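Complex 243.
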Amino acid sequence: MTALSLTNLRAGYDRDLPIVKGVSFTVNKGEAVCILGPNGAGKSSMIKAVAGQVPCFGGQVRLGEADVTGLSSHELVRKGMGFVPQTENIFTRLTILENLQIAAQLLPRPDRAARIAAMFDMFPDLGARPRELAGALSGGQRQMLAAARALLTEPPVLMLDEPSAGLSPKLVGQVFDTLRRISEAGVTLVLVEQNVRAALALTSRALVLVDGQLAHDGPTSALHDGNLLGELFLGHRSVEASA
Ligand SMILES: Nc1ncnc2c1ncn2[C@@H]1O[C@H](COP(=O)(O)OP(=O)(O)O)[C@@H](O)[C@H]1O
Ligand SMILES: [Mg+2]
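Predicted structure with adenosine-5'-diphosphate bound:
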C-alpha cells in the first residue's frame, strides 16, 4: 500500500528556474526511506514542496490515495503529513508544554491532553521538564521536541529534514534511536540526511538526488559500498531506478 508518491514533481522558487526537476518515487506504508545527495541538490526544496512550503509547478504529490499537490502546510498536517523542517521547528521562547499545546490545536479539544501525555511517554526527557523553555534545551532535545510536535497529530507519514544536523555523535545516536522507535511503531519515514552512515543504518531504501533529479533509487544495502555513493554524489554515474 502506498503512503506517499511523487509523480514528475517540479518545484522551486521561480517557475522559470525549477529546483526540483521532475522527480518520481513511491514510498510504501511503514517503509523508512532516506534521501541523500550533495549540498544544493534540492533535497530541502523537494521535501518542503511535498509539505506545502515551496510552490509546486508541475506533477503530483499523493498522500495515500489523495492528491495533495499544492495544498497548504496546515491542510497537509490535517491530512496526515508530519514534517519536521531543518530549522525553526520549535518556538524557543515558549515552554515545552506550550510548544505541544500549539501543535495540539489541530486536534479535537477532548483529545489534546491525552496526545500530549502520549508524547511525554514517548519522550521522557521532555516529560520530565514540561515548563522548561524550549530555547534552553540541548540540540538533541530540541529535535525530539520538534519530532513530538509533528507526531502529536499521529501522522501516518513523517518527513524530517536533517534531524542530526549540528548534533554531537552522542546526540545523533539518541535522535536515531528515537527515529527507529517511531519507525517500529509503524510510521512511514522519509528522512533527508547528510549523515549517510546513520541514515543507511535506519532506512531500508535510499534515494539520491543530484541537481534536482533522482540519480538512484534502491535498497540501502547497495550503498554500503562507499564507491557507488561517491560516484553518485560526484555525478559521474547515474543508476536506473531499481526499487
Ligand atoms: N528560499 C529560497 N529561494 C531561492 N532559492 C533557494 C531558496 N532555498 C534554496 N534555494 C536554492 O535551491 C537550491 C537547492 O537548495 P536546497 O533545496 O536547500 O538543497 P539541499 O537541501 O539539497 O542542500 C540551491 O541552489 C539553493 O540556492
Ligand atoms: Mg537541505
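The mean pLDDT is 91.
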